[in-house]
Design goal:
Layout (H helix, E strand, L loop, with lengths): L2 E3 L16 E3 L5 E4 L9 E3 L6 E2 L4 E5 L6 E3 L4 E8 L5 E8 L21 H10 L7 E3 L3 E2 L8 E5 L10 H4 L4 H12 L6 E5 L6 H4 L5 E6 L7 H8 L8 E3 L2 H13 L5 E7 L7 E6 L5 H4 L8 E5 L6 E3 L11 E6 L62 H9 L3 H6 L11 H6 L6 H15 L1
Parallel strand pairs: 1-14, 2-17, 12-13, 12-15, 13-14, 16-20
Antiparallel strand pairs: 3-9, 4-6, 5-8, 6-7, 8-9, 10-11, 10-15, 16-17, 18-19, 18-20
Helix pairs in contact: 3-6, 8-11
C-alpha cells in the first residue's frame, strides 16, 4: 500500500462544477459507437444499415484481433453507418426500440467468481464483447487478450475539471465492483491496484477486497491512472500493464453476475455554458442532445465530449465518446484585451497559474475558448515542469519527439507517458504549444518502430 501526496499540478478553477446529486436522463432516441475513439483500431463492421441488434450485440471488430468485438450500447435498428475521409468509419448509429433486449451470456454467483480460471474469464469477456473496456499501457490502446499484464490499475478518484465524483457514481454498487475486482485479479500475474482519495466516503471503494489500496492526494493530474502507475510501480522496458475505468470495473462485474452487458453510465454535465451543472444517470454512447436539452446558456457554446483539457469537440447532435463520462460546455470566443499581458489586474478578475496578479482568491472563472494568442517559440521557464508530477524531462522529451529520435525518446521515458498526463502542460504553456498532441505523435512513432 502506498500513501501518495502529489505536489505538482493544478486544479483549474472553472465555473459550472457539477452538483453531487443525480438526475435521471431522458431516454435517447439514438446511441452510437465511434471507431475514431479507439487508437490504432482498423475496424471491420459486422452489421449493415437496417439490421436489428440487441444490447451487447457485436457491431465491429479489429482486423488485427478478429476475436475482439465492440458491443452495441442499445437495442434497436442500425439506422446509419457514417463514413469520413478515405472511407474511415466515423459512427455506427442505433435507433433505439421502445422495449430493448440484451444478449444473454453465462452468469455466475458472486461466490463462484473468485474460483474462475483465467481462460474461462477471457472466454466470457470475448463472448460478451467486453474486452474494449480494458486498455493497456504503454500506448493506451485496447488490450490483446493473449497478453498477460504485469499489473492492473484502477483510479478511484477523478481530478480532471468537471469530472464525475466516483463517490456518487459508485454508490450502492459494491457487489458489482467487487465482482469486477475478482475478475481482473485472475487476469494478471501481479496485483490489481486501486487508488482512492483520503476523503473518499463510498463504501464501494472503502470496503473492497482483493486489491492493493493506495491513498493519493494532490492537485490534478493526481487522479490520472498514468500518474499513479508512475509513482506506485513505474513501467520498465517491455512491461505491460492494463487499466480499467472505475465505472467499467462495475460494468464487468455486473456482466459476470447477470450475463448481460449493462450500458448504464453516470455522466457529469458542467462548465460555464451550462445552466444546471449536475450528474446524470444515462448510458454509454448517448446522444448529447438528450442530456443537454434546455440546459445550455444563451449564446454560442462549445460542447466537449470529455473534460476541457483532453476532450473532443462535439455538437448537440453528437455522441458521447466510448471512454468519456464528462460533457463540458464553455462559451465560444471572446475578444482579446489590448496589451492584456501588461495591464494591471487582480486574481479576482484574471486567471493565473503563477499568481501574477494581486490577491489569491478561490473564485471560479467563466473560461471561454479564447487562447489569447497563437503558437510561438518555446520558452523554457519550467512552466511544464511545475505542473507535471513525473520524473521526466518534458522539454528534452519534446525536442526528441520533434527530431524523431526514437532512442532518445525511449531513454527519456516516453513509454510511461500518455497525452492526458501532459494536458496541463498545454494549459500552462506560455507558448501555446499543444504538448499532449506532441506526446501522442511520439507514441505513434514508437508503435511504428515496433
Amino acid at each position: 500500500m502506498a500513501d501518495l501526496n502529489i505536489k505538482k499540478g493544478h486544479n483549474i478553477r472553472i465555473s459550472g462544477v457539477p452538483l453531487n446529486e443525480v438526475q435521471k436522463g431522458t431516454k435517447p432516441k439514438t446511441v452510437a459507437i465511434q471507431p475514431i475513439d479507439f487508437r490504432t483500431l482498423r475496424p471491420k463492421v459486422v452489421v449493415k444499415e437496417g439490421d436489428s441488434v440487441k444490447i451487447g450485440s457485436p457491431l465491429l471488430h479489429c482486423k488485427m484481433h478478429t476475436n475482439v468485438f465492440w458491443p452495441s450500447p442499445g437495442a434497436g435498428t442500425v439506422s446509419s453507418i457514417q463514413f469520413g475521409p478515405r472511407r474511415a468509419i466515423e459512427k455506427i448509429i442505433i435507433e433505439l426500440s421502445e422495449t430493448e433486449e440484451s444478449e444473454c451470456n453465462d452468469s455466475y454467483p458472486s461466490s463462484e467468481i473468485p474460483t474462475l480460471g483465467k481462460e474461462q474469464i477471457l472466454s466470457s469477456l470475448l463472448k460478451g464483447n467486453m474486452i474494449p473496456f480494458i486498455r493497456q499501457r504503454p500506448f493506451n490502446r485496447v488490450i490483446n487478450p493473449s497478453d498477460t499484464p504485469r499489473d492492473i490499475f484502477i483510479s478511484g478518484w477523478n481530478t480532471a475539471p468537471l469530472s464525475v465524483n466516483l463517490d456518487v457514481a459508485l454508490r450502492r454498487r459494491l457487489p458489482q465492483f467487487q465482482a469486477g475486482i475478482n475478475i481482473l485479479k485472475q487476469l494478471t500475474s501481479g496485483a490489481v491496484h486501486l487508488s482512492i482519495n483520503e476523503n473518499t466516503v463510498s463504501d464501494t471503494l472503502l470496503e473492497i477486497n482483493g486489491a492493493e489500496i493506495h491513498t493519493i492526494n494532490g492537485p490534478h493530474p493526481a487522479g490520472n491512472v498514468g500518474i499513479q502507475i508512475h509513482h506506485i510501480a513505474p513501467l520498465k522496458l517491455n512491461d505491460l500493464v492494463w487499466t480499467v475505468n472505475a465505472q467499467d470495473v462495475a460494468r464487468i462485474g455486473s456482466f459476470f453476475l447477470t450475463g448481460r452487458y449493462d450500458p448504464t453510465l453516470f455522466v457529469t454535465v458542467g462548465g460555464p455554458g451550462v445552466k444546471v451543472p449536475t450528474h446524470i444517470k444515462t448510458r454509454a454512447g448517448v446522444q448529447l442532445e438528450s442530456i443537454l436539452s434546455d440546459n445550455l446558456n444563451k449564446g454560442k457554446q462549445r460542447i466537449i465530449s470529455g473534460d476541457v483539457l483532453t476532450g473532443k469537440t462535439a455538437d448537440n447532435n453528437g455522441y458521447l465518446g466510448f471512454y468519456d463520462s464528462t460533457v463540458s460546455v464553455i462559451p465560444e470566443g471572446g475578444e482579446r484585451e489590448f496589451m492584456g499581458m501588461i495591464r494591471p489586474g487582480s486574481s479576482s478578475t484574471r486567471y493565473s497559474l503563477t499568481h501574477s496578479f494581486i490577491g489569491f482568491g478561490k473564485k471560479l472563472f467563466s473560461f471561454n475558448t479564447l487562447q489569447n494568442g497563437s503558437e510561438r517559440y518555446m520558452i523554457p521557464i519550467n512552466a511544464w515542469e511545475d505542473v507535471l508530477p513525473m520524473d521526466i524531462l518534458p522539454n528534452a522529451l519534446y525536442r526528441a519527439i520533434l527530431v524523431e529520435d526514437i532512442e532518445e525518446m525511449e531513454q527519456l521515458g516516453i513509454l510511461e507517458c500518455e497525452e492526458e498526463d501532459f494536458a496541463l502542460c498545454s494549459f500552462a504553456c506560455p507558448s501555446k504549444i499543444d504538448v499532449g498532441e506532441t506526446i501522442r505523435h511520439g507514441l505513434e512513432l514508437m508503435e511504428k518502430d515496433g
